[in-house]
Amino acid sequence: MGGVGSLWEALDDQLMPLLSRYRRNLATLHVDRKADNTLLSEADLATQEAIVNAVEQHFPGSRFVAEEDDPKLPTSGDPTWVIDPIDGTSQFVSPEGREFCSVVCRLDAGVPTAAYVLAPELGVGRTPIAIHWADEVLANGQPAKRLPPTPTPRRASMTRSKYSEARAFESNLAEIGCAMKIRTTSQTLDMVRASIDLSTWTATSDHQYDLFYRPDQKVWDGVAGIGLALAMGRVATAGDGRSPLPLDEGFLHQREPTFAETIAGEPDCVRWFVNLLAESRSS
């Protein structure tokens, strides 16, 4: 896709040193807490500004749907860019944290057509993993590897709020021997690992997922993962098994566009889980 690849390369060049600088100075990093109890750091704001500036240089006249509120961002134009400057801010502000990333997704007519995910410290030895999707999906410059098919999930990202109770279907997953991740870190990275085999760089398959599920998912936490799932031959649906795409204008013009439920991953596992959800809600 003309121009998108060069935008992704420009973001690699700009965001890696920017994020590294803030990570080296966590002791003095200014961090606030937003109304929804999530964290907002000065690094989030600086990263979003850098992404917007880079997009506007490559694609003048674009509009933006971004996590951090900024009245100066254009709300009309074409194409549309969905931005999460740092997905997993709580991990970013922790010296031990690694599961955070910067996310950009291009939408054309409400459908993801390209995506960028930079996880600066996810690889072995805290090395970066960069996902570039334009005409094809690349992981650190190499064609992305698909995950093997499986009829039921072996590992699943089922994250939920810290103090929420276990959901009925969790016992069903446990019964079939499915290992579940419950704690929320970066939803985007979980969705990436439900679509792309990253073991070349992580040296482990423990954090790959056959299935991803999240209720009340903000668009900037999910749309890039939805696009990557489809680009990698996986599927992404709402809780009723229907596609959430295309995203309509009314949805995108909300202050915080939110999917009621997002399910993504191996097609057989998604079908199995959609049926499980329906059964759990009818009983």
Distance between the termini: 47 Å
Q: Can you list the strand order of the major beta sheet?
A: 3-4-5-6-7-8-9
Tell me roughly what share of residues is in helical segments: 25-40%
Q: What would the principal axes of the Cα set say about the shape? A: globular
Number of E strands: 16
**SSE sequence, one letter per element:** HEEHEEHEEEEEEEHEHEHEHEHEH
SS strand fraction: 25-35%
Main sheet specs: 7 strands, mixed
Mean pLDDT: 92
Gyration radius from CA atoms, angstroms: 18 Å
- Uncertain stretches of 5 or more adjacent residues: none
Number of helices: 9
Oligomer: single chain
Question: What does the model show?
Answer:
With 283 residues, the chain is α+β, with helices and mostly antiparallel strands. It is built from nine helices and 16 strands. The strands form four sheets. The protein has a seven-stranded mixed sheet, with helices on both faces. The chain has a five-stranded mixed sheet with strand order 12-11-14-16-15, with helices on both faces. The chain has a two-stranded antiparallel sheet with strand order 1-2. Helix 1 (4-24) packs antiparallel against helix 2. The longest helix has 21 residues, at 4-24. The protein is globular and about 50 Å long. The protein starts with a helix and ends with a helix. The mean pLDDT is 92.
